[in-house]
Amino acid sequence: MKGNFGIRLYYILMLFGVLGVIDAVLTSIYTGINVGTLFPGIVGGIIIICVYIKLWVRKGQPLIQNSLARKLTCMLVVLSILSFTFAEVLIIYNSSSQEDVEAGYLIILGAGLRGSDITLILQERLQKGIVYLEKHPDTKVIVSGGQGFGESITEAEAMERYLISKGIDGKRVIKEDKATSTMENFTFSREILQKTEGKDINCIVVVTSDFHMLRAKLLARRVGFEPYGITCSTPISVRANSHIREYFALIKSILIDR
């Protein structure tokens, strides 16, 4: 009975591996290929290989022969699951929107392009930004994002074009087209504001996706902003992938981004 239960667990684990591969394929189709979209597929592939070796090559024998190493591996897996759960609770808790806050500047964070076309996630952010800008006609907007792999123009350029095509006055739009990370989004945007205003601008409203808001506010505060957030829903097709990627990105930002 115990052996059958263990085998079922491995089959469940293999199912998660297959789902990871499927998620990577679908997300790459919808948003383009990058390390983040491929990551669940890579992890899923590793899981599938490990389960295959365990069940059909080693015929149920332990993959790790040393008992201490097996225990340490199990502890690492448990700690990873607990830390992921804790991080997701924080991400969800901090995903509330503050759309009634009035600020002189709105910052819309980039979210990747397919060539020169905006992705579903970026379109959602831009639409939320348009609603805010129409409600606050004196607010200016910084569109922040450089040019990444598979992009024929900068994200800032694509965002500016989109906003103008939807009726936003181009004089209200400021491009920040060098950033390749969330930390750089805020660092470079702050430098632009210091040059254009001749002083520090602290209060800003950030537009980004719900899964990204916790980290966005964390990094905005690190460069001296007082951030408020307008969160955007994440398309179902990329939601799981986005949350998984954000877990690792959050750890990296906490430990490294300064």
Q: What can you tell me about this protein's structure?
A:
- This protein is an alpha/beta fold and 258 residues long.
- The chain folds into 2 domains: 1-63; 105-255, Rossmann fold.
- It has helices at 2-31, 35-57, 67-93, 120-135, 155-165, 182-197, 213-222, 236-255, and strands at residues 105-109, 113-114, 117-118, 140-144, 173-176, 203-209, 226-232.
- The protein has a 5-stranded parallel beta sheet. Strands 2-3 form a two-stranded antiparallel sheet.
- A hairpin with a 2-residue loop joins strand 2 (113-114) and strand 3 (117-118).
- Helix 1 (2-31) packs across helix 8 (236-255) and helix 2 crosses helix 8.
- The model has no long low-confidence stretch (mean pLDDT 89).
Q: Helicity range of the residues? A: 55-70%
CATH architecture of the largest domain: 3-Layer(aba) Sandwich
Q: How much is the radius of gyration in Å?
A: 22 Å
Spatial gap, N to C terminus: 53 Å
| Main beta sheet strand tally, sense and closure | 5 strands, parallel
Binned strand content: 5-15%
- Helix and strand composition category: alpha/beta
CATH fold field value of the largest domain: Rossmann fold
Shape by Cα distribution: elongated
CATH H level, superfamily name of the largest domain: HUPs
Briefly, what is this?
The chain has eight helices and seven strands. The protein has 258 residues and is an alpha/beta fold.
Map the helices and strands.
Elements: H1 2-31, H2 35-57, H3 67-93, E1 105-109, E2 113-114, E3 117-118, H4 120-135, E4 140-144, H5 155-165, E5 173-176, H6 182-197, E6 203-209, H7 213-222, E7 226-232, H8 236-255
